[in-house]
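Quick one, tokens below. Sequence please?
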């Protein structure tokens, strides 16, 4: 299980930067550089390792990989985002990680929804 960085889950996130907080409050979003080329390469290598042969629907490793593989996916992804999360937010909690990929074709359609 992924441990909290600073606080319990469900605590409102605040940026460490007052400027980012102000822009978020004003605009409802901010755009930041989150991870670098090394992390992208790590994630690409991991994806190449766990990706299915074809991607026609919506895919998540949670549904077809074994527990040890899913734990490894969670750990690698979480580690790629841990330092950036600590750098950007005062209160951050990394609650788990997996690949969720929208493929091609009719089976990839999704309806409006809200993820946790």
């Amino acid at each position: 299980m992924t441990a909290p960085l600073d606080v319990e889950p469900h605590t409102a996130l605040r940026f460490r930067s007052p400027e980012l907080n102000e822009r978020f409050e004003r605009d409802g979003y901010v755009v930041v550089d989150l991870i670098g080329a090394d992390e992208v390469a790590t994630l690409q290598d991991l994806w190449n390792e766990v990706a299915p042969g074809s991607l026609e629907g919506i895919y998540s490793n949670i549904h077809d990989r074994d527990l040890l593989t899913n734990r490894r996916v969670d750990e690698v992804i979480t580690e790629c985002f841990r330092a950036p999360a600590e750098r950007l937010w005062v209160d951050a909690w990394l609650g788990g990680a997996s690949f969720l990929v929208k493929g091609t074709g009719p089976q990839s359609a999704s309806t409006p929804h809200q993820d946790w």
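The longest strand covers residues 58-60. Helices lie at 18-27, 37-50, 61-64, 67-88.
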